[in-house]
Design a protein that fits this description.
three-stranded antiparallel β-sheet; 11 helices; 5 strands; Arc Repressor Mutant, subunit A; two-stranded antiparallel ribbon; 232 residues; mainly alpha; 7% strand; 2 domains
Length: 232
Amino acid sequence: MHIKKILSILLVLVLIMAPTAGAFANEGYVTLKFGSKGSEVVKLQQALQSKGFYKGAIDGIYGKATEMAIINYQKNNGLAVDGIAGKQTQTALNKNNAVSRGTSISRTSLIQDDLYWLARIIEAEAGAEPYKGKVAVGNVILNRVKSTEFPNTVYNVIFEYYQGIPQFSPVAEGTIYNTPSQESIQAAKDAASGSKPVGDATYFFNPDKAAGSWIVKNKTYVTKIGGHSFYR
């Protein structure tokens, strides 16, 4: 009788602990699948795009294109193929992501990954601009990194979204994933070394390609270099 009572107590404890264990097992990630929406899907799409598996819009919607990208990624990496971004798939996909996203530049110099992302956005935004215009774009990115109004890493400034819309068109278009020219690389280095052709500007746009109405109405004009107008 005494043994039966002990066994009953143990059974109750197992049943109580089971959901708790499941909760801990799922801690740290959210399973994403067809129909999921939100910032976690945005991050997933960005990671897939950076590895060449996703070419659609970064819209935060787990639709057919995202599902197919996950399936192809799973096939190419020896994972269970189910089209669902569970713990195993996300762990593999985000491996070393922390390194590629760079670090805060409250320090006096940038690490190599920061410079590479800076060169990429310069190439995407100002590849056809004069050299001064290239440095100016790098100047703006670094001003944003140092401002409390924006994220504090080069990567996160570039990939910042506002109401589901990327702040830089090369992110939406996929042209951010380029191989920067030597000139763009040098421009990134010059900007990181303190060259500031546009001072404390934190915005720019090309009037021939976009109206930039909000910037014009709410920010102060600084100067124009090549095709870009700069504001602070």
